[in-house]
Design goal:
Strand order of the largest sheet: 1-4-5
Shape: elongated
Structural class: alpha+beta
Helix content: 55-70%
Strand content: 5-15%
Distance between the termini: 46 Å
Number of helices: 6
Mean pLDDT: 80
Number of domains: 3
Radius of gyration: 36 Å
């Protein structure tokens, strides 16, 4: 219902209530005037008419009270919903931008990892300065994201959770509990209480079963893990 329609409906209800109230007042005046007009002629008692009028006013009062309570509840719900929307807008407005920046950070990390250790050692001062500059850029970018509520997941050694992790492969290991995260292929991140990007992981297979524990709710779906890993959970 639009605001204009809602206002029109409320106005109609108010006008109807006013009309009924005016009719009730007129009926009351009539009920009290009639005995005086016919006092000398032994006019009949109007108590029954007054009782009907009182019942009508009580019903009208109950109806108005019910409408007031409903309106108050609607306004309270609207206030809380607005507060939640404003909070979410502040917390998650940069989610898409942050996700894109993570892709840039990934590329910086890949570039650094692609440099052989011996090349770092044998490189001249200019090359070393370039590498240090890329490392500083990566750190500054991740630090800026952290200041805006983006946090890195640390799933290694934890039980696989499809709300936060995406299983890419399985690692046979009879000594590690089944579905334990053993390797992180790509870091995952959250923003506030929502998953910004799931961690891509490798999970253990062939070890003892882990007890099933309640899984926390995530604010975004990271994507389905591999079928075999999910079946072994």
């Amino acid at each position: 219902m639009t605001d204009d329609t809602k206002k029109t409906t409320e106005t109609t209800h108010q006008d109807s209530a006013n009309e009924r109230m005016e009719e009730a007042v007129k009926a009351a005046e009539s009920a009290f005037d009639e005995p005086h007009a016919g006092h000398d002629d032994g006019a009949p008692d109007n108590s029954e008419a007054i009782a009907i009028l009182v019942d009508g006013l009580k019903a009208e009062n109950a109806d108005l009270k019910d409408r007031y309570l409903r309106l108050a509840a609607d306004m309270d719900n609207l206030r809380r919903r607005t507060e939640r929307d404003v909070k979410d807008a502040r917390s998650y407005s940069i989610a898409n931008f942050a996700r894109d920046m993570l892709a840039v950070s990934d590329n910086l990390r890949r570039a650094l990892d692609a440099i052989p250790a011996e090349s770092r050692e044998a490189g001249d001062d200019g090359f070393k300065a370039l590498v240090e500059g890329v490392e500083m850029t990566e750190r500054a970018m991740l630090s800026a994201l952290e200041r805006h509520g983006v946090a890195k997941l640390k799933p290694e050694g934890q039980r696989f959770d499809p709300n936060f992790h995406q299983a890419m492969f399985e690692i046979p290991n009879p000594d590690v509990p089944n579905n334990t995260v053993m390797q992180v292929v790509q870091d995952g991140y959250v923003i506030g209480e929502r998953v910004l990007r799931p961690a891509m992981v490798g999970v253990a297979k062939g070890g003892p079963k882990q007890p099933v524990e309640p899984k926390p709710e995530a604010g975004a779906e990271p994507g389905a893990p591999n079928g075999e890993a999910e079946r072994d959970a």
